[in-house]
Amino acid sequence: MHLAPNKKNLLITGATVVDAYSEYQADVLIEDGTIKQIGDIDANSSVEIIEASALYLTPGLIDCHVHLVLNGSPNIVEYVQTKSDSELTAIATANAIRTLKNGVTTVRDTGGKNFIELKVRDAVNSSAILGPRILASGKMITSIGGHVRYIGREAQGTEDCRRAVREQIENGVDFIKVMATGGLLTEDVEHEDIELTAEELAAAVDEAKKFGMKSAAHAHGLAGIKNAINAGVDSIEHGSFANKEEIERMTSSSIFWVPMVKSLHNILDDDIENRLSKECKRRTRLSLNAVKKALRYCTRATKVVCGTDAGTPYNYHGENSIELELLVEYGLDTHQAFESATTNAADLLGLGSRIGLVREGYDADILLLKKNPLDDIKSFRKSLVEVIRSGSPILKKKSY
Ligand SMILES: [Zn+2]
To answer: Global pTM?
Structure first.
């Protein structure tokens, strides 16, 4: 099967366009993967028409924290150590397709193995396979014996951290991922422990900036969050134990926050199968309580970004929009949740002038839904009828 983008122009008629800034009824003309025109448009014979007057048209969703090589296995360490690179490539490819079919047209992969996810990214870019747009960080940079050491790049000292960053760049990554604290899933590493030191983080971020690259810091505990903010990272991943002061600092300095509530819920799903350690679940319960509290410190100006950590235990690719439902459950309104997966996420990726809104000149990454997501955020999961990626309809249902 040839999967090259459909070059035929597409006219979507009569839909209610909904993005973070506006809501109105219009026709949307797509040419060569780009939104060419929005308004009252007459069809010509060369366009394929989707009649959508009963539907809502939104930007495709953006998930800023996934791990394409991981598959939701509870034995995550054993899984990733024992699978061959070719098995992981096949799994990552399937995960990318599943993600796209569920309405996510862009993902940020925050750590893989042996640069496999970069190969998947390149295959999507060359239209060899279907998938969302992928930006990837390559190997997570961690301390010696630290969190995710089994697939990450262990580093010690500021010079080695700079070297680790350059290694990732040499391999073609899109941004840098550093570990500021321990995590939930690595044995003998506490989630609040410092991993890379303040000096090491600052060196890594500085080295990345030399190459125009953004940095994302994994940080659960407060001390690590402070170190990462001081180092000048672009985003805090998790940020579970952020206090009011640190949320305010992130807000005032436009550091993006990717809280990832879904991943915590999914780890606690293990109470049925009981394959994760008591320690892991203890850390997770503490983190979930903490992140719920931290979300209350958000204001409308806080740059909350949707991330799921998809691939971690029981956290399957394609379920991404559940994160938006949980953000609403924990106090954000539907508009903030919508922004987290559209405009805020696009800005974090540095792609705010191309994706995250429905505008002329933007990439035609579009969803069609039966219900307005601003009325019911579950619409992304329950009422999705079409996904358009770079102008090509993916689901191709017979009727909408
Ligand atoms: Zn992660």
So the answer is: 0.96
